[in-house]
Amino acid sequence: MRISDILRVKGDRVVTVQPTADVTQLLTLLAEHKIGALIVSADGARVDGIVSERDVVRALAARGAAVLTEPVSNIHTVQVRSVAPEAPIEEVERLMTDNRFRHVPVVENGALKGVVSIGDVVKNRIDELEAERSSLTGYITGERV
Ligand code: AMP
Fold this sequence. Notes:
Elements: H1 3-10, E1 16-17, H2 23-33, E2 37-40, E3 49-52, H3 53-63, H4 89-99, E4 103-108, E5 111-117, H5 118-141
Parallel strand pairs: 1-2
Antiparallel strand pairs: 2-3, 4-5
The protein binds adenosine monophosphate.
Adenosine monophosphate (AMP) binds next to strand 3, helix 3 and strand 4.
């Protein structure tokens, strides 16, 4: 299975935020879309950074409520790790596990193609295990499942 298989199921919609937006606008977008991270992009296509709820929590703990009016560019991560659509799913699993983050943008030829979250990866694993269980049951019982 490849990253593009995950995107085919979940879609390629990506919510981005401008680096100049303030942290309160960021929180509104996270709440509105029920997600934990946004891709920071000035033009909506190129990845300029990533910002997650954890960045907000750390900045709030360090600097207090003043953070809410700061620009997103003050708290986002600039060195973003991404994957290509043709990469195997194991690559994103390894990236998330080794680096302890839960979101990875999918980039092709410098352009944003989607985002894979740890929830997508877990869902994919469960679906795979379910399909395997079903075919093994069919094999043992002689029934087509
Ligand atoms: P997360 O677990 O995804 O909420 O993010 C935890 C931390 O890692 C935050 O500081 C994020 O800005 C950062 N982060 C999340 N995803 C990535 C990524 N793909 N590449 C680099 N940093 C990331």
